[in-house]
Amino acid sequence: MLHEALRFYPGGDRAIEVELGDGMDFTINFIVHRLVAAVREARIAGVVDLIPELASFQVNYDPDRISYEDLCHEIEALYAEMGRGVTGTLASRLITIPVLYFDEKTEACVEDYRKDYPEKTPDPELICELNGLPDRAALRRRHASTEYWVAALGFWPGLCSLLALNPTARIIAPKYNPPRTHTPKGAVGLGGALTCIYPDATPGGYQLIGHTPAPTYDGAQRLPDFTDSLALFRAGDRVRFKPVERDEYSEIEARVAEGTFRHDIVDYQVFSVDRYLDWAKAQEEASK
Predict the structure, then answer these.
(1) Mind listing the pLDDT tens digit for each residue in 10-50?
(2) Are residues 238 and 139 in the same domain?
(3) Of 62, 130, 239, 267, which sits 20 to 30 A from 193 (CA to CA)?
(4) Whether 144 and 261 share a structural domain
(5) How far is CA 215 from CA 29, 125, 224, in A?
(6) DSSP type of residue 191
(7) Is a pLDDT exceeding 80 seen at residue 86?
(8) Whether the Cβ atoms of residue 236 and residue 40 lie closer than 8 Å to each other
(9) pLDDT value of residue 71
(10) Which of 123, 178, 172, 179 has the alpha carbon at shortest distance from 155?
């Protein structure tokens, strides 16, 4: 739900957390991105960095150039000028990510966890059970049937929080309790209403359903698509998952090792929230 007014929380003496609402809601997230874009375009003196999140964003600033109070007032003025309506457009790249669903790396990770917690249902079967899906093939079809919105980046460098754009293709999954101590780099997971791609080998709690050989973070900037950024995704991008078989997976893996792999990125598109909301409503009505 969108708050009646912006809520500001100091993050030490050099950051402000600006909260617009609560919950994992596409509408709120789009307004977050619009306001972040407005703050960026305003070029407020002293603003160092902007980090969009699901229902909020962080502003890093230089307190020697602008005070906490003045920065809050500047952001409030931009929000009032922008209006609370969910309209407008944002530049949005479409990135296709190849995925080998139900691969041996994530299957081994799940089984390793179940040695200590044997009562844990294997991740794909648990997701199928909770979402009324008959089998793994149906899970793969549904997960790969929609584009995803990059709502936020965080928790780990390059880690994306993805929301399914087709409301009829959304999948819900609980997080691990307790979390895993290890997750393979490139694992694709589901937690709550979000999908993520683990950019590195890390602890984790999302239910695992597949693995991509395509890097989403390159700290050495070795691959061509990481020349301008260590992370592949930007907030406001869209992602489509392409199911691949073992041969294509291995071919991509080899090109990554050679340093010649290029991601499939369409970078000239604009996302219209008005048209999207009309389309999403039509999808929901058609599914009834």
Answers:
(1) 999 999 999 999 877 888 999 999 999 999 999 999 999 99
(2) yes
(3) 267
(4) yes
(5) 25, 27, 11
(6) E
(7) no
(8) no
(9) 98
(10) 179
Beta bridge partners, 18, equal 8, 57
Token reading at 241? 């998952």
Q: Whole-angstrom Cα distance, residue 130 to residue 128? A: 6
Number of domains in the chain: 2
Q: Looking at the structure, do residues 139 and 248 belong to the same domain, yes or no?
A: yes
* DSSP 8-class letter at 106: H
| Distance between CA atoms of residues 104 and 196, nearest Å | 18
Residue 144 has pLDDT above 90, yes or no: yes
* Cα distance between the two ends of the chain: 25
Q: Mark whether 182 and 69 lie in a shared domain.
A: no
Question: In the structure encoding, which two tokens stand for residue 249, read together?
Answer: 């997976």
Specify which residues 52 forms β-bridges with: 57
My answer on whether omega of the bond before 118 falls inside 30° of 0, hence cis, is no
3-class state of residue 91 by DSSP: strand
Separation of alpha carbons 34 and 89, rounded Å: 9
Contact yes or no for 197/99 (Cβ under 8 A): no
- Contact between 24 and 74 under an 8 Å Cβ cutoff? The reply is no
Domain boundary among 86, 102, 136: 86
Same domain as 112, residue 31: no
Structure tokens at 167: 């409301």
Half-sphere exposure (Cβ direction) of 219: Cα atoms closer than 13 Å: 5
Cβ atoms within 10 Å, residue 201? 13
Same-domain status, 150 and 215 = yes
CATH number of the structural domain spanning residue 8: 3.30.1360.40
Looking at the structure, tell me whether residues 118 and 239 fall in a common domain: yes
Domain span at residue 50? 2-86
Strand 147-153 and strand 160-164: the pairing is antiparallel
SS3 235: coil
